[in-house]
Amino acid sequence: MSNASPYPIGTPGHPWGASEIAAWRAGVHRHRSYARDVLAAIEALRRTFDVSEYGALVYDGERFPLMVVRSRDWRANLPTLVVTGGVHGYETSGVLGALQFLREHGLEQAGRANLLVAPCVSPWAYERIQRWNRDALDPNRNFREGSPAGESAALVALLAPLRGRTLMHIDLHETTDSDESEFRPALAARDGEAFVPDVVPDGFYLVDDAERPQPAFQRAVIDAVAQVTHIAPPDANGQIIGCPLQSPGVISFAVAKKGLCAAITGARFSTTTEVYPDSPRTTPQQCIAAQVTAVRAAIAYALGHA
């Protein structure tokens, strides 16, 4: 899907200023409840996990607590596993997949590893089904110290003590039709650039770290997810979102240079999932199941090769 018409906010060729960001924000509306969907689900996990607040966002007088779920039997001598979801609020299966994993499988590695899960990194965007935060910033390009995105800065601070001590980090995402119909056109308009349409990959794929590649780890996750939903084929140029394939269903970025979430911990094994929920070949529940399967496969491989 593509959209070649001019974006309705801003002047082509000119980056947005404060007035354009305000106009964009005025058109963004709440569609769902973080408290009902996420906080209530996390509250129910207190029976078996340590649950705490690692920060809060205050937007327009409304407070959004940022929540983390940890193993209750955390031990310094055990390997650490990190799962993050909802970095982009519109990517629903990442949030619901992280929560379902905790409910159904969160104790499977008890006594063998420490588990840390941040199920919804961007609650304001989750409620509004948006990629950006309130300030029209993409959290997944801003994971660094001193980040201007509050969502990113809070998670960086939470995970800083684990940097270089984390065995596995999996970050759960989606690629949707709205990437081409809304989010990439908005990005081009915000930055004063021309929008160049692309093709949304039809299926699940992974993003490896080009500077710290782990191809066998990526293949293990892809093989497991292929039992749940279909893997994205390459486009006519043999690529996925403009990147050559490392292996079927796997591409790679320099994730740290791009400020992506999967680079925060410096984990030995790291990956970013991408599910395509708009495909006629899958369902919302299959997308959630694909995220859960990816987490379990990533953990199994990492612990088997620790």
Automatic annotation (TrEMBL):
What InterPro entries does this protein's entry cite? Peptidase_M14
Active site location: E274
SUPFAM superfamilies reported in the protein's UniProt record: Zn-dependent exopeptidases
> From what superkingdom does this record's organism come?
Bacteria
Q: Which residues form the Peptidase M14 domain?
A: 30-306
Q: Which family does it belong to?
A: Belongs to the peptidase M14 family.
The protein in question is named Peptidase M14 domain-containing protein
Starting at the broadest rank, the lineage of the source organism is: Bacteria, Pseudomonadati, Pseudomonadota, Betaproteobacteria, Burkholderiales
